[in-house]
């Protein structure tokens, strides 16, 4: 019987001539040097056997730790594959901390559940593209940058001295222009080869109604266009002057005036497609520039022997109430809530000295809102706090703003050489 020794690890007897315990495989005594093993008992076969046992023990330990797997069918040990880092697209990076400029950020994917699932391929970042360049607007200016509704005013513009004789006149062709209420993005939307005037916004801010003689020289008809000056639609075709259009509060009607053969104008209403053209207030006076209030009343100016007066009526024209005394009372404009009516009032003899007046429909009182002379054609802001108007300075009209509460006035449009009138505030 061979001599034994006690394994220091498992405390079991094991042959004294073996370097490894036959029970647990742990090293019992130091291995002999190559020289002594070659000359000692067992020699190279003993060393080879010991190495195989050591290798088996190492594989066993790695398998128990879960670092390798052993396939029973093929007998192959497979090492786990470390997950690869992939580049995520901006869409995949949503909420995952992408770069501040929107470019993809490299992120490590989680370990795949199945190694047979292919890793995602690298997706290149999207290429930035430029928006189409908008077409230029007709002369004299290019297209302005759009602004928020309520921050835009449209107005009419013509040359102050169309015949070059050094004095202001009204003979030049008018174009419709726009400007933001902070004085930026000024530009014109219609061509000066014909005359277009009196722009008025639809309640939803999507459509402009106005008068133009584009199709019939010197005979204005009523048209619609988009706020950028495109998509013209003609509504009237009567070969008589149709002018002064304005929307009803619900956008279902447009009111305007039409001149008869003798030059006397009559009020009409029609649908936004041009249908149902119906006269209202057929009283035989010269009635012009109707405007519809939020409360359903229509204000208009009417010419009489002693000047121009402001009247109130209903949409059917059955009532007819005069609210101004004698004088030059023109260009009525309703406040957004329909309580106040602004208009211009001046000296009927000279036609000068115009002021913006405000009439309170609840109290019947009228007060002067502007200082100085020659302020006309008011238009209310959507919040009712300001009024845009045309103000004549040294014979040239430009667009100014009035703070209704304080009475402070400030100039909005600076355009030497032009007559800027008929402002219309976006809703």
Structure description:
- With 427 residues, the chain is mainly β.
- The protein has two domains: 4-72, no CATH class; 152-425, 6 Propeller (Neuraminidase).
- The protein has two helices and 30 strands.
- The strands form eight sheets. Strands 18, 19, 20, 21, 22, 23, 24 and 25 form an eight-stranded mixed sheet that branches.
- The longest helix has 22 residues, at 43-64.
- The radius of gyration is 45 Å and the shape is rod-shaped.
- Mean pLDDT is 76; it is low at 31-46 and 71-148.
Q: What is the topology?
A:
Blueprint: E1 4-6, E2 13-15, H1 34-39, H2 43-64, E3 69-70, E4 77-78, E5 85-87, E6 106-108, E7 152-159, E8 175-180, E9 187-188, E10 196-201, E11 208-212, E12 221-225, E13 233-234, E14 242-247, E15 254-259, E16 265-270, E17 278-280, E18 286-292, E19 298-304, E20 307-313, E21 321-322, E22 327-334, E23 340-346, E24 355-360, E25 366-368, E26 375-380, E27 386-393, E28 396-403, E29 409-411, E30 418-425
Parallel strand pairs: 20-22
Antiparallel strand pairs: 1-2, 3-4, 5-6, 7-8, 7-30, 8-9, 10-11, 11-12, 12-13, 14-15, 15-16, 16-17, 18-19, 19-20, 20-21, 22-23, 23-24, 24-25, 26-27, 27-28, 28-29
